[in-house]
From TrEMBL:
It comes from Bombilactobacillus mellifer. Residues 19-350 form the Enoyl reductase (ER) domain. This is Alcohol dehydrogenase. PANTHER family: SORBITOL DEHYDROGENASE. Keywords: Metal-binding, Oxidoreductase, Zinc. SUPFAM superfamilies: GroES-like, NAD(P)-binding Rossmann-fold domains. The keyword Oxidoreductase applies.
């Protein structure tokens, strides 16, 4: 099924080089039988996008030619391929930004986030969704409820990180959790662990605004890292025991070291945040005494349906994370806002088509 007068081109915001965006029009590829054509309605800016914008690179990825950023998105289907049966024109969807090969060992075992051939939006070589329309495989779009806004639906991507981390650590009720870092992913991890039955949640950050938001989302104790020692505060809150689970979501080198030390014996930690540097010192004596279980985390797999369900049950809370709104033509302003306004801004949303909300 298709709507009339389908677009063949798409106005897009390209990162030309570090610090510079340029509007261009791209020609849409021909749809395959299993594809859908999506009108992109809302795109959230991620910290990795900002890193590419600011430095022109992220880890081993370098922007060597113009690249469309953005990978947190939702939209409306305009057309479906001949083999698509689960969607129709007019459906509202969230878009999962990684398309794996589907054939390698990792894909076959269900760990498709680790697929070496995955094509992930906004990584050099694969354009993202700061564009009006995209042609995309139908296997990686998901229905969203009619009463869910496009902005909240776009949170399905960063929220999936917290859901995946909670599943990886096998979070169970009755434990205390420490979340290091109150950026959008850290804040959404609060929502994730609550959905898995956790009620005692300690959160740290350097920004009072973000710590206040953490409390609004359900944190039971907050730590201002500019005034308090993280390990001492966690031990104090847990009667000297430490927490059962820790999530390091800041990427700060010192925080990465400290977060491990907040665990009780046989506690579990997931490293979520993109590191500022590749290596952090670890206390080996602590590790050989407390037997912590340490997990690295790379994106997510098989999380979108659950993430959408949890967000739908917590739309009022999720809405507290969305603070700023820009048009596609204002992409550079939106990125500058994200980069420089950590004391008052959380999730910045860009609208590639009509603007739904004001600043």
């Amino acid at each position: 099924m298709m709507m009339d007068n389908l677009p063949t081109t798409s106005k897009s915001s390209y990162l030309e080089k570090a610090g510079e965006f340029k509007m261009k029009t791209k020609t849409l590829p021909k749809m395959k039988p299993t594809d859908v054509l999506v009108k992109v309605m809302a795109v959230g800016i991620c910290g990795s996008d900002v890193h590419f914008y600011e430095h022109g690179k992220l880890g081993n990825w370098n922007v060597t030619e113009p690249l469309i950023l953005g990978h947190e998105s939702s939209g409306q289907i305009l057309a479906v391929g001949s083999d698509v049966t689960d969607f129709k024109a007019g459906d509202r969807v969230a878009i999962e930004p990684g398309v794996p090969c589907g054939h390698c060992e990792y894909c076959r075992k269900g760990y498709y986030n680790l697929c070496p051939q995955v094509q992930f939006m906004a990584i050099p070589g694969t354009d993202g969704d700061l564009t009006q329309y995209i042609v995309y495989p139908s296997d990686y779009v998901y229905h969203i409820p009619d009463d869910m806004s496009y902005e909240i639906a776009a949170l399905s991507e960063p929220f999936s990180v917290g859901v995946h981390a909670s599943q990886l650590l096998d979070v169970s009720p009755g434990e205390t959790v420490f979340i290091s870092g109150s950026g959008p992913v850290g804040l959404m991890t609060i929502m994730a662990v609550k959905a898995f039955g956790i009620h005692d949640i300690i959160v740290s950050d350097a920004e009072p605004f973000r710590l206040e938001t953490a409390k609004a989302l359900g944190a039971t104790h907050t730590i201002d890292v500019t005034k308090q020692d993280v390990v001492e505060e966690v031990k104090k809150y847990t009667n000297g025991e430490g927490v059962g689970y820790a999530f390091e979501a800041s990427g700060n080198n010192k925080a990465e070291t400290q977060a491990l030390m907040t665990l009780r014996r046989r506690g579990k930690i997931a490293y979520i945040g993109m590191p500022a540097v590749d290596e952090a010192p670890l206390n080996i004596s602590f590790m050989t005494t407390y037997e912590p279980q340490i997990y690295g985390l790379f994106r997510y797999a098989n999380t979108y349906p659950l993430a959408i369900d949890i967000l739908h049950d917590n739309m009022d809370l999720a809405g507290k994370l969305i603070t700023d709104f820009y048009t596609l033509e204002e992409t550079q302003d939106a990125f500058e806002r994200t980069r420089t306004a950590k004391s008052e801004s959380l999730k910045v949303v860009i609208y590639p088509n009509e603007k739904l909300r004001d600043k």
